[in-house]
Amino acid sequence: MEKKWEGYPSIKTVARYIKHVMDELRGRNAHYLAANGMREFKNHRMLKGKRDATALMVMEFVQGDAHTFDCWVQYTSPNGKIKAIRPVLVAWIDTRSRCILGDVICVNANSQVLKESLVKMLYSHPGGVPKHLHIDNGKDYTAETNTGQNRKERKMQELDFDSETKGFYRSIGIEDWSRSLPYQPWSKAQIERFFGTICSMFTKWMASYTGTLTGSKTSGKRKKDIPGMLERGELLTMEEFYELWTKWKNEVYHKREHSSLKKDREQYITPIELFEHAERYVKAAPPREYAAMLLMKADTALVRNQGIIKFGTLYTDYELCHYIGQTVNIKWDIDDITKLYVFDKNGKKICEAVSAELLQFAPRMSQAALEAHLKKQKKQVRETKEDLEWYQTPYELRVQNEQGTPAVVGGLDLAVRARRNNNLIQLPDDKEFREELKAGSNSKKQKQHKDSNDEFFNKKAQSVLEKLRALG
């Protein structure tokens, strides 16, 4: 028999029942989950553990992310147009000391900006080579050129190839990296808290502050006439804003007592003091030249009869004639695309191809250009014939003719004790960098050997001449 209500319960009765469900039956979390969804529940209601940062060494665990400032600055585009933008900060924080490392300010954060930020961290103070890098889940941080693997794979793989294959992070000496899961900012809590400190202690004091970008409360917004401020020249330029930011970071944030360091009962309670005095993970940074090469853009290109076509421009060099029809690796400086650095598949440097004026497709052509072109053609035919003759020579004859030639020249004699170098650096295992370094070393040794031979023969000739004069 269906039970019927004898009467409707009062509002107070309903309120008491709801309070009973929420308090006695612990229904508040269930209500929050149903009302706000799983993402908000994880952010605000899910249990979280506290990390023991004191167990880490300085530079052992570094977190990185990007932050959009809640203020506006004046920016001049490459085409000369002036506009107002929100600057973006790309920075890293040392989990143990809370020091800020490798901070750069840009218009848009991309993988190239992240590389420049990491390079700044390597060679600046405070900074160095971190042991473990914890990165954001964004596509710029997890790009394949940075990690060396598809961003769908979350664990770091063992990679044994060159910088383009194994990723920028491993190439500069970082042993391990991890990435935070989507919509879980607590996995990089220190850097997220620092961004909150930026809003409360730095950005709010800017005249162009307009409130938090992601704030849900209308009261947190500030109405400003940004177009009018831009027109009147009241906005700071990017350079002026960066100077203020650097001054605040170095003189205020790094030197003030940090509440988290107090709670952890650290001996040093300012970020810069703890960074300089606590136990530190130390690893030598790679040479600056190698880091500069890693910052270059990379691609592959087909070598044609005329050279390499890139950016709609022809790049030429004589050495490319040996690779016609083959695909080679190329690198270029994003600030100077007049030159391509060309490497073979094994990482050996082939040449530096330059962009020059094409031979004129016209009835008249300069004599100098024609003679230079014909000379290159004759040289190519001559060297190709010599190579063909060498390949057609039986193996026994080639070995007999090459007995007096060592297989390797210019190698390092490990039996000789080397002088200690105080400026210690880590030699990268990148094939392209090693080949270029080796080529420069060999040319220098050949010049020194030639000079020593000339000096020896001059002394012998002078001695013989003196003896002849004595006889005469």
From TrEMBL:
SUPFAM superfamilies: mu transposase, C-terminal domain, Ribonuclease H-like. Residues 436-459 are annotated as: Disordered. Residues 63-279 form the Integrase catalytic domain. Pfam families: DDE_2, Mu-transpos_C. GO terms for molecular function: DNA binding; transposase activity. It comes from the Bacteria. PROSITE patterns: INTEGRASE. InterPro entries: Integrase_cat-core (IPR001584), Phage_Mu_transposase (IPR004189), RNaseH-like_sf (IPR012337), RNaseH_sf (IPR036397), Transposase-like_Mu_C (IPR015378), Transposase_Mu_C (IPR009004). PANTHER family: TRANSPOSASE, TRANSPOSASE RV3428C-RELATED. This is Integrase core domain-containing protein. The lineage of its organism: Bacteria, Bacillati, Bacillota, Clostridia, Lutisporales.
